[in-house]
Amino acid sequence: MTYFQKTGMDLDPNLVINHDDTNLSEISYTMEQDSSSYSLEMGGTPSSAGHRKVDMWQNHNFDSGFQTMNHSEAPSIISSLHPSSHLSGMSSMAEYEPIPNLSEQQKQKFDGITKNPTDGQYNTVRAIPELTMLMKDQDNEVVQKAVMIMQNIAKMECDAMRRQNETKIVDPRVIFTLRNLLRDKVDHPNIIRFTLGTLFNICNRQEGIDLVTRAISEQPDIIPNLIRHIGTFANSIYKYAILTMHSILSDKQRGGQSVTIARQQDAIIHVTPWLEAEKSEKLLPVIVDLIRVLCEKNTDQKVKFVKMGGPQKLLHILQQRGYENLLWRSTQLLKTFSNFDAPCLVAFGGRQILAGMLSHGSPRLVLSTLETLRNISDVPSKMKEELLLKSLLELVNSRNAVIRLYSAQTMSNLVANNRPNKEYMCSNNGVVNLCRALAIATKDWQNFQDKEAQQMEDYAESLICTLRHLCVGHPLAEKVQAYVFREPLIFLHKLMTMRPVLLKHTLNLLLKVVSQNALLAPFLLCRIGEIGFVEQLIHILRVACTQLNVQDVIEGVRVKDIVHLCIQILRLITRNPDILNEVDFFLRSPENSRMGDGHTLPIFVLQKANVEENTKSSTLELIYNLMHHEKMADHLERDEILCKMLHSVQMQAANHPELANLAANILKLMSEKRERNRIHYGRHGSFESQFGHLSVAAQRTEVLNSHGETYEGAGEQWSQPMSDDSMMESYCNSSGRDSSKTYNSPMYHSPPSMYPEYPNGPPSGPYYDPHASTSTRPTPPHYANYDSPPVYNNIPSNQGPSSHLSDQYPYRQGRF
């Protein structure tokens, strides 16, 4: 029978200890109980020892948990000032365990070790050197008694109630002698146990840790000898070895060298099997934390742990155990491996097992579980996840800001490209809950600043991203789109914040919503103040265009993606004649028609050499749609650069057939328009006499800078375009977000906002004003009876990385 199969020395699983951390006073007491069986063999009287223990509890007002079943008052393993294992040390091993009967000759060797008559304590100044010499004696019984007394002294020094003024065990030769015993007395388990107990108690105070680590720096083989006894089951030796190892390795100041030695000696291989073999819920947290220390920031150790089935053992602990501290530490270790080998955790049912932890009453356990789930939520799986989604829907409205943020982020990954999960969400009020949560977050946004504001922004971003996934890829997609857009003010508000990440996800969602004709009415009529969707979209496009040659990425979002999404939405919404008229109005405004060398925004996008082909294709489709508006068609036809670009694209049909076809269709519309104008003006004079200076045949001497213009901006904000737009100074922060720094968003620390009437959020009430505005601000006319010719609104095209038709969510690189 191997030592993993024996259970006679297991700790009592019913001990009541501190809820937050592992209390080792009772672990120590139980291990000392194990030694009582040995004392019977030596002729001791356990009944008298038991009376002394009870008397000790009564005299010191100490409750171990046995008497009242309350949490122990003793210090705990991780909560002490020093992160090492902590033992209360209320009693000495010599008191609990009768010393073996020694002969008179053997007793004479201890004559120099005396106690003070006043307090009964050992005269440690003289005793420690004497004991150090006796631990080297050839007589094993003498060695055993010497190390027992040394352990008693070490235990007194780590006991706050019995500690003397100064620490006495300060000689590194004591540590070297204990090391020799671990090496040479392998066949004497009692000596080994007392030796480990002495080291354990020495390590329970910071001075002792410093002493041991200094000794290890001189004689590194102390660590290998400790590791050797992790596999010794007799007399619970492995427990003391594990606890002592944890105390040394978890020291943050000087434990680094010991950790390196332990890794080189494959300590992980000796410790991992105890995750499955150990039955005590009080020792298991120490084992888990020891593994965490060994694996921290070390790939080789993680690989060994995975090969030994470590993650599966941790998941088994979550299923079978109920001790909160053990569950929390297990999820903390799993969180480390969720970033290392997430597919492994998912394959072994990690998401389903972790879902059961979300209903636990411990906030720190729920938070640790959610963080682990978030890290593995982007791994594809065919397992059912209804329980997990149900729990996430409950937590997404939690009062804890971090819990609701992690819940929303996890949910977003789970529904991406997963039709069963989307259908479950839609049939279980998931969309309703998410929309309600988004509305509350938008309303409460004004009450937060700095870090809280950043968390709220991330939360809203995750909710919008989840809703975007639910808008496609299942039979109820159109109903979801209609329900989501019942409150268009929320999404217009998100566009007006001009935060890059929010812009990306909001634009992606709008791209799906505007595919329905019925939803174009609120898109057209919704207003915050005097600002509507069309004007804000064109404004976002202009700001993004000015950044194309300045910086590629702003706060993790590609500027090209923002440009592409704006062009895509404008292409789709211009199928509506009223919206087409409004788009024409704002595109021909001075700030939007003087980009670069004086071109309108779509032409400026075509000129950019760093714009991707799918964006240029969408831009050509937008220009084709704009050609069906009379005033915009005149404006585009007079742009000689556009005509040259169209002819150039048409000649590249072999390399870019789709672009060439679009260019040909636009040139055809221009030709037909010129022919109509020629016939119309033929009655009143030649075409050239009316528009000679704007003729397509006229040669221009100005050459467009294909690399775009670099404009001087305002500090870290998005740069100012070449126009008199004084509102630009309040827009996007171009610096990347750093959670370790103060959150400096233009929304919270910027000049006056673009819309001072509604600086913090959309107004309550109807999403549009039915009454005419009294402002002097010009508004675009509406042509209710305008008949729009066929336009490019359903042409299959590459949606680009920001809005793929298959709703593809980035795999692992796109995680939160």
UniProtKB/TrEMBL annotation:
InterPro entries xrefs: ARM-like, ARM-type_fold, Armadillo, Beta-catenin
A cellular component annotation (GO) from this entry: cytoplasm
Subcellular localization(s) per the UniProt record: Cell junction; Cytoplasm; Membrane; Nucleus
Compositional bias annotation for Polar residues: 731-744, 794-806
GO molecular function: cadherin binding
Broad class of the protein's primary localization: other
Biological process according to GO: cell adhesion; Wnt signaling pathway
Keyword line: Activator, Cell junction, Cytoplasm, Developmental protein, Membrane, Nucleus, Repeat, Transcription, Transcription regulation, Wnt signaling pathway
UniProt region (Disordered), positions on chain: 710-816
The keyword rRNA-binding is annotated on this UniProt entry: no
Residues in ARM repeats: 126-154
Key word Cytoplasm present: yes
Feature: compositional bias, Low complexity: 745-758
PANTHER family per the UniProt record, alphabetical: ARMADILLO SEGMENT POLARITY PROTEIN (PTHR45976)
Family per similarity comment: Belongs to the beta-catenin family.
Name this protein carries in UniProt: Beta-catenin/armadillo-related protein 1
UniProt organism field: Caenorhabditis briggsae
